[in-house]
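Researcher: Structure for this, please.
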Amino acid sequence: MAELLAQIATCIERGKVNAASPYPPDMKGQDGADELTKRALDEGIPPDDVLAEGMVIGMNAIGRKFSENKVFVPDLLMAAKAMQAGMGHLKPFFETGQAHHKGTFICGTVQGDLHDIGKNLVCMVVEGGGYKVIDLGVDVASEKFMEAVEQHPGAVVGMSALLTTTMVNMEKIAALIREKSPDTRIIVGGAPLTDEFAKKIGADAYSPDPQGAIAFLEAVA
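Model: Predicted structure, token format:
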């Protein structure tokens, strides 16, 4: 069992989606996250173990490398693609309650901002970390964030902005969430942001990368 879960973790870390995928070249022709996840479940390995001891390990490994500038965006995207291939086999188990998410993460790029690459990377890494992700998309108004908070009690909110002209909208969103749901945790990210700005608007944390978001989620779980 342990060997199969380790293989799943390696496939996700390396971005090996399935046997047909030519990437990475040194794993060409080998089974990927798709086949190995199905095999693990068919062999009776509990879905929670497949998630926690296979997929999460792989995504955490690539996330750490990304934070340390040892790999880059294309590597992270391939890892996320491999993770999503495996997640396809786990989805029925989430729906029946046989597998469980660690928590729920609501994320979106704030109103006025259409940039989504950073937000998408965070969403993919967080999902690979075992969390249910509610992706609100881009140009998200404060009311839409608040609606998602009300629909998913206990969820953590992540806000993204890439422009100095739109990062100011985070303050309005944070204020509404604090007014309506004061216990909701908020994390923000984006190129122009800082820890100081996060504190100023009443957010709980700032992270410059996806792995920081995972660390925050683990800390507040």
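Researcher: Any notable elements?
Model: The domain at 104-220 is CATH 3.40.50.280 (Rossmann fold). The mean pLDDT is 95.
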